[in-house]
Amino acid sequence: EMRSSITSSSSRRRSEKEVVMFPFMAQGHIIPFLALALQIESKKSFSITFVNTPLNIRKLRSTLPHNSSIRLLEIPFSSSDHGLPPNSENTDVLPYPYVIRLLEASTSLKPAFQKILQDRKPLCVIADLFFGWTASVAKELGIFHVVFSGCSGFGLACYCSLWLNLPHRKINDGSDGYFSLPDFEEANKIHMSQLPLNISEANGEDAWSKFQFQNLSHWFNSDGMLFNTVSGFDQLGLMYFRRKFNRPVWPIGPVLLPSESRASVGKQTEFTSMVCREWLDSKPLNSVLYVSFGSMNTISPSQMMELATALDRCNKNFIWVVRPPIGFDINSEFKAEEWLPEGFEERVKGRGLLVQSWAPQVEILSHNAVSAFLSHCGWNSAIESLSNGVPMLAWPMAAEQFFNAVLLEREVGVCVEVARGKMCEVRHQDLVDKIELVMSNRDKGSEMRKKASELKDMIEIAVKDDDEEISGLKGSSSKALDDFFCAAMAYETEQYSMK
Ligand code: UDP
Fold this sequence. Notes:
499 residues, seven-stranded parallel β-sheet, binds uridine-5'-diphosphate, glycosyltransferase
């Protein structure tokens, strides 16, 4: 009975029940939230209110499809009140040291958010993993609350465990740099070189430690977690959260943004899309390496030289999204050739396509000419790659990317790590060897490709939906989303009966 009442009716009739969604102000967070909002809108009969600060809402207005019924709601915020530059409401316009300040400033949204919930009385709140405090607000008002993670279960489990325990602080100088996670032994040994900068510098007293500790302690007030992942390959991490917080965890991924919305969220142009498509169309099946490090991270000038040399030497087709290197003066104009070996573009002509700044990544990954993806392992990139059956070369750089790489390499077997961190020394020969290994049609290369294609099938099955439930074919992710809404409705019923 309950099931049928939460699936969307073809007449698009909306029930009164409302879902409030509230992502942190960063593209890497807003994108999966928006993808989830659009998915809920298309499949379920709830009204959706998407909360964010004024400038982000303004940008989102031009992103939402015209016929969307998602309500965009501004929560008042002025960056200059918080020691941030004026009009800076998204990490994409803030230098890294300001990110923690934006996080700290976000806790000041509490009274305004409380008011929103009081006024709207929604069925549930789906909040960002950096907005732990929203759980306490929702709890006080008797509203069902979940944290939605755009990270993998495994990656986030390592990341949370590190912040909660700071285990790397306890190893002594004479050790080999390896340590384990006290509450997540399943992750095996972690090495110091796998720590993002803010964790390796954390001492429990710094701004990041304080923020994370506070934030995570609020999660105990939440009623569960949604993950943009698939239960079939991410069990260990999901289990960590079930155990740690003693709450249900619903793996509902992959939620991916439809291509119409992708174009306006990013900075891609129709022209770049056309150039990439035509270029890929001219290349043989499984012959192209795609190289990109996401929307925020870049490599150092010397790493850029090594990578270019590797691409020059390995004689493979490639698309490389070239972004200004670390230390680049953002006030000057970026000219890729000034940062590449002399004559590089000439030598790779015909087999190498350089795209400056932003490429149509999902279109590229879904093209059958693409054979492998050299990636920083941001979870959106990873899950886009897996959804298209493309094996990966990992160069993790920040946050939980190091542990996404571990999941993909050790647990899933579709990835080889080639380098670690923004400061590491990479040698071009090393890159050449690993690129050849992964792109080869023999041995490990063909094994990984086979595994990646099995994963693609697994993902397709996980998101199977519609009336297939009747025949017992509803996929694990679709079922998890149903289960989540059932839990929210049951919670609401219980609240009423207590009154
Ligand atoms: N992306 C893209 N073109 C680019 C770079 C990134 O379309 O040139 C998209 C990519 O498809 C993904 C997102 O931006 O959806 C990046 O998210 P991810 O979690 O991989 O990394 P982040 O940018 O958050 O580090």
